[in-house]
């Protein structure tokens, strides 16, 4: 029905590499596949094997689960989009499920696949949206930290020079020109 490839990490794998839970659900235990470094796997290419894999109204949704977290939606493939590179946004491990887990059965990271109604899935590419959102937040934090070094406080408010945005942007551009990895660090740091 489907195949997957983890770029730079695997050969093509088919549904037999996953544990089939029922007719519409599969799970790949990342500890069996990779060991403890599941967070290093940032993307997965998923593809339908032929046009008969799914009816037109169905999709194969991709979910990820860190140890002790809930499954989180990452993307999907369907008849009109039979292949995709899906960004794997691993949720933070832990939470209530961690407390409830049995000591004899350690929690592991998993990738889940589910056949679902196409109309029930989010329309946007969650992975790309989250990347852009994270990048914007990190750039905003950089600006705020820069502004704090030039500000004063009056009545509980931050007062900054009028040209602060221009100074920050110039400094930001200069760093990006001098260091090709500067902007990349905004997308890879946590």
UniProtKB/TrEMBL annotation:
Give the GO cellular component terms, alphabetically. Answer: cytosol; nucleus
Top-rank lineage group of the source organism: Eukaryota
GO MF term set: nuclear import signal receptor activity
Family, per entry? Belongs to the OPI10 family.
Name residues in a coiled coil: none
Ranked from the top, the taxonomy reads: Eukaryota, Viridiplantae, Streptophyta, Embryophyta, Tracheophyta
Protein name (Swiss-Prot/TrEMBL): Hikeshi-like domain-containing protein
Record-annotated Hikeshi-like N-terminal domain positions: 17-118
What Pfam family does this protein match (any one)?
A: Hikeshi-like_N
User: Could you tell me which residue ranges the Hikeshi-like C-terminal domain spans?
Assistant: 132-185
Q: Which InterPro entries match?
A: Hikeshi-like_C, Hikeshi-like_N, OPI10
GO biological process terms on file: protein import into nucleus
């Amino acid at each position: 029905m489907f195949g997957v490839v983890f770029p730079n990490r695997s050969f093509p794998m088919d549904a037999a590499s996953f544990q089939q839970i029922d007719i519409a659900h599969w799970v790949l235990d990342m500890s069996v596949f990779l060991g403890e470094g599941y967070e290093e796997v940032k993307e997965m290419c998923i593809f339908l094997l032929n046009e008969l894999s799914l009816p037109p109204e169905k999709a194969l949704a991709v979910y990820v689960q860190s140890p002790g977290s809930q499954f989180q939606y990452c993307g999907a493939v369907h008849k009109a989009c039979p292949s995709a590179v899906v960004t794997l946004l691993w949720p933070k491990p832990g939470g209530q499920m961690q407390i409830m887990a049995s000591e004899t059965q350690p929690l592991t990271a998993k990738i889940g696949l589910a056949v679902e109604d196409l109309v029930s899935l989010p329309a946007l590419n969650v992975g790309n949206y989250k990347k852009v959102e994270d990048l914007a937040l990190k750039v905003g934090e950089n600006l705020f930290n820069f502004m704090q070094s030039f500000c004063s406080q009056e009545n509980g408010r931050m007062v900054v020079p009028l040209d602060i945005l221009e100074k920050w942007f110039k400094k930001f551009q200069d760093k990006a020109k001098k260091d090709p990895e500067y902007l990349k660090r905004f997308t890879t740091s946590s």
